[in-house]
Amino acid sequence: MEEKDQTEARNGKVCVRFPPSPTGLMHLGTARLALFNYIFSKQHNGRLVFRLDDTDKERSKPEYIQDIIDGLGWLGITYDDGPYYQSQRGPVYAGFLKKLLKDGNAYYCFCSREDLEAQRQYQMSRSEPPVYSGKCSGISLEEAEARLSKGERAVIRFRTKIKKIEFNDIVRGELSFDSALLGDFVIAKDLDNALYNFVSTIDDSVMGITHVIRGEDVLPNTPKQILIQEALGFPIPVYAHLPLILGPDRSKLSKRHGATSVTEYKKMGYLPEAMINFMAFLGWNPGTEEEVYSIQGLIRDFSLEKIQKGGAVFNAKRLDYLNGFYIRRHSAKALAELCVPYLAESGLIALDEDDKNAYEIVATGERIGFDYLEKIAGYLQPRLKKLAEISELADYFFARDLETGIDMLKWKDATAENTKLALDELINLVSKIGEGEWTKEKIEQAILPASESFSKKINKTEWDRGYLLWPMRAALSAKKMSLGPFEIADVLGKQKTLLRFRAAIDSLSL
RNA sequence: GGCGCUAUCGUCUAACGGCUAGGACGUUGCCCUUUCAAGGCGAAAAUACGGGUUCGACUCCCGUUAGCGCCA
Prior knowledge:
By secondary structure, the chain is α/β, with parallel strands linked by helices. The chain is built from 21 helices and 16 strands.
């Protein structure tokens, strides 16, 4: 409720921001921050500003910017304003630095790195807080500028007022910091090179950000930012510091965990809706037992107040489960459409430039329609955790010759002779099914009863359909694990099914 | 070293100060089944520790421990 009051007090739209540093690919932690800001802005009919905090010129790369933009696009996270680039906003920051200098809220510091380091070591050895001594705080602006013009080097420090800084964090409640422990901190290397902490504060204020929703790793920066905002007469935004996403070792998710970028998840065949659902439930839950949430559901039920305070370890198995769940929710048609790029990527099929509904099986040159893919997708649906797995699970539908042989084809203790008998029987049964009635049900009706009597035929006392069905499945798939035999036969069609049975008999080399 | 944040099954989490501490993933047993999945029904699995406050503490307070974060 308090949050609402502060929101209204801003006399306008709620405005949030997503300001990644493009110094690496966008991983889950960053994407989740974007997601929560997006949801919050939608809930309040507000505005989301996209800003690239690219002041680190060495580490910021255009390809990382592209990766972030691609990732957001894929997840369906849109923004209302931006992207802004901090690297292009130098004059704005210089202006505010000059103002602080002129008002005496900042000053030039000529202390050398070595002196500062020595002082810090000394303070730490005496268990004192490592704060700047304030040695240069008495140097007037005129004197400082004179020294600068003579080529002396200096940084710009903020003149910290000793006070208790208190603010209300939506996630963490009342927080208070003693500014004496901060000292006069550095805000810029010089007028043209303001530091991260300073520029992001300036931008948040200038851009009218009402709610700063960010990771708790920057929580210790907040008092400094509030001090800067106060000195410049800016309103203080509402803060919400979210718990971090952790790697398996419980440390902040980063590159060394192999933190996968969002675009990488796309390549592996994760669905954006699964990613959204998964990310939202890292640190948040609706307080009910409902665990399936679309973006619309999140906009309806999400609230910052319900966010967990502790960091959340990323659980890949759960993501896989969710992804499989969402895959199963699609229609066979929709799933097949999603799978086409993966099948093409792995070289199983080629797209037809002229006919959007036609594909070519690369290994055989055979032309197939979309219905072939749709059938496969429908059958494979329960086994798919990631879209990219389609290629491995469906490869035998796109193969020319299969490697079978006795070890693959025999069921349990069956001999090569038994197995040949089974395949002969299958050819016989299948031949009787007309092309026009070639469906999974018809094939099953033709073969299942025979499979029940077949074990007797080869003098097995135990009733076991496997003596007929395993060779069938193996002959059609050449795999120890695959779809059911009737499903495969259905997809393959009568001709290819018979062909594979004969090839299997040949592979027995009797 | 200083400051800060955090603490419920292996993981994500639920539980106005009041039930056998609930759910999900994972693990596991059974069912279904030619294989592998999916599905159905079960099981094991947690309040970090120590003090208070209270008739009663996962919940509130203090301390300890541990983890993490920030500062160079």
